Amino acid sequence: MLKILKTALSRHVADRDGLVKELEGSSSALSLVVTTVFRMPRKRADLPVDYWKMQAKHARGRADLMRDPDAKATMLEIVQKYEAMADCAARREIIRHRPD
Predict the structure, then answer these.
(1) DSSP letter at 42?
(2) Which of 18, 26, 63, 83 is an S-S bond match for 31, by CB 3.0 to 4.6 Å?
(3) pTM (2 decimals)?
(4) With 80 as the cut, is the pLDDT of residue 30 above it?
(5) Using an 8 Å Cβ cutoff, are 35 and 62 in contact?
(6) 56-73 b/e with 16+ CB inside 10 Å = b?
(7) 89 and 82 in contact (C-beta within 8 Å)?
């Protein structure tokens, strides 16, 4: 896992897309987080609700495939974090579209 993280950090600027492709087949929680972070738009601070819901859906699918209880629990925690991010994005959209 640490090797994946070091690779991710060292290639952050140089070959972001190549790293995502390399990690996409991995089932580890760390690789999911790294690929998610690297798939985020580089200059957009406010990601839409649908983005976070899709990330939660993918993470839940990976959790369903895991046999190790600790890994599965970790992945389900990640799902909860993605769902929390979707809630934050929804609140942000409501505020942004609220009439003055």
Answers:
(1) S
(2) 26
(3) 0.57
(4) no
(5) no
(6) beebeebbeebeeeeebe
(7) no
d(CA 27, CA 68) in angstroms, rounded, equals 12
Rg (CA), the chain: 15
CB 71 within 8 A of CB 32: no
Residue ranges per domain, the chain? 1-39, 43-100
Which alpha helices (H) appear in the chain, and where do they start and end?
2-10, 16-23, 29-39, 49-65, 69-96
Closest C-alpha among 10, 12, 34 to residue 23: 34
Distances (CA, A) of 93 to 3, 53, 98: 38, 15, 8
The two structure tokens encoding residue 79: 């799902």
Lowest mean pLDDT among 7-11, 30-34, 68-72: 7-11
User: Could you give the 3-state DSSP secondary structure of residue 18?
Assistant: helix
